[in-house]
Amino acid sequence: MKNHLFRSFQPAGLPGLILLLISSALMAEDPLHLTARVRTETAPESGMWHSTFRPFDWAPRETCIVVCDMWDNHWCQPSAARVAELAPEMNKVLITARNRGVFIIHCPSDTMDFYRDTPQRKLAQAAPVVSTERPLERWIRLLPEREGDSLPIDDSDGGCDCDPPVKNYRAWSRQHPAIEIHDDDAITDNAEAFYLMKQRGIRNVIVMGVHTNMCVLGRPFSIRQMVLQGQNVVLMRDMTDSMYNPAKAPFVSHVWGNDLIVRHIEQAWCPTILSTDFTGKPAFRFSEDKRKHVVIVTSEPEYQTERSLTDFDQDLRRDFRVSIVYGDSQDGSLLPGLEVLKSADLLLLSTRRRTLKPEQLTIVKEFIASGKPVVGIRTASHPFHLRNQNAPEGRADWSDFDAEVNGGHYTNHHGAGPQTIISVASDQMAHHPILVGVDVLALKGVGSLYQVSPLANSTQPLLIGQIPGKSPEPVAWLNQRRDGGTTFYTSLGHTGDFEQPAFRQVLLNACRFLTRDLAP
Question: What is the pTM of this model?
Fold first, then answer.
């Protein structure tokens, strides 16, 4: 898929050079410094996606913000409440953007009668009609050739999360009053928005508003149609909401459903940005969204945990916001998008003998030094160094990771063969929160048993593994690190381990336990 946001501009002859000089002059006038989150598939047909961050600059005069359907009321009252919570924060973004020279287009559909005599409405109506190769339609629905056969959420019931859901009717009469409309703004709900852009030489479109799975995608001034018209489009992902009822597939929370639609947009249509780029403040989150942020980092070919942890993501997302960082398909020591760890509350690590670029290893070290919790599985006992080799030139390693972070002493593993019998380390540990609801008797270690003894004095063993004729070894423990943080490590993590509900419950409990005292 061609990404218009990052396409190159090739001027042709003198006219092209003049355009380039004009564009450069505009960019010199205090450009907008933005950071796009871009999703690219790790490999063709893999079904897994890198989520990377790319800085870029836009000239304010060539940029507009489209405010999509932020109505004053809605037939779905939870939706109306979320809009009322979002609108004042959105207004702050618009004030900053307007002061920077960004053109604001308010698009509260089906309310033009309310604004018919306003100068902002007349400004939009006066924009000269522009002929387009593809007609600007009242609505463009799902395009299977680009988006697949369906959205990731089922909104066939209208998406209302009232209990019980209410019947669809037109409850709105205007845009939400918390969003100010200034003299130089425009108001429309149709193709006039694009005509205004062309009239003003606007190539860059920032979309915000509701609802992401409906109007934000389908309207003539919004994502699908603006991308198809060749505009550079981004969604401001924290200034949006979806119409989704958690009683419908995939049966997740409302905020998770919204995350899924944003992810769909990033994969099929355009990158996203945050309001932080304008306000300098943390991204907006709805008051109902209390989730901690878990970042999974997986890059090891032996146990295919990139697949296992992608599936486990479904378990985690019921309680957490989740980001996944995969190793590069050509060089697993490259971790595209690792910058997301800077905003994480917990790191879930599954890498094996990777030597990172120094700046990426610094991100990991700084996260751990901050005292934040870590969950490590299987090869996280030797995640960032080679066996009996120094790091290649230009790369960095952390040979003492196991001792310093896990409190472990990995030396090798027993050969593959018998399953590992698992037992609780002590009667006292049987009641530990990480083992609550876990059927330990049903848990078996499918992979080879790791040799990890002796553990550091700072550790607290939870589970012990035993194979015939060999000394028992700890297979799960907590470590109180010198930096003040806590690590949960388990030498389990084989593909067959993830197939066991008991193991998945242990991992989920560990993530819950380690984030329980973190401020929301």
Answer: 0.91
